Task: structure prediction
Amino acid sequence: GRFVVVVGPDGVGKTTFATALTARWAGPTSYFHFRPAIRGIMAKTPSNTEQVRPKPPKEGSRFLGVLRLGAAWVRFSIAYYLSIRPAVRRGDLVVGDRWAYGYLVQPYSHRYYGPRWLARVVVRLMPQPDRIVALTASRVVVHKRKQELSEEEIELELDAWSSLSFAPLTVLDAERPPHEMAADLVETLTQS
Result:
């Protein structure tokens, strides 16, 4: 099995790509959005019924943000050992959407207002996937799909998501058909 995390800004096509990837994979698959349940069964494929939540404010309590980050470290670590690792050992391809990397690229979305260096240290201490897949597209294309973000915000996120340096990183052009990107990644995963 393998543990793969798909990252990129809202609107780049992460769920569509994850759907194509789980369809293309020859063996069993599991999927979770952001963080897996600590106990329970992960979905086999993504659901297109994820709720859109309003963006939190860009200012908040640093203290509460640091507490949230600490709680996230505990939750992600426990979820990894109780849900993801057993699925990988069974031979599943586990596909996660963002994992904890949102604390680095979109900290306000997770109501984290603490120092970036602390988020980087805590995320580095979490279990890491076998591969990070950063989806990228032109900011114009992403903006057409997700108009609540400015093109400048999208450009900053695209750069940040494409420069994560934790696990092996594969950058894929999300303007290509999802099934082609999935085929490329499956080939990469089966060769490594």
Summary: The chain is about 45% helix and 15% strand. The radius of gyration is 16 Å. The first helix runs from residue 14 to 24.
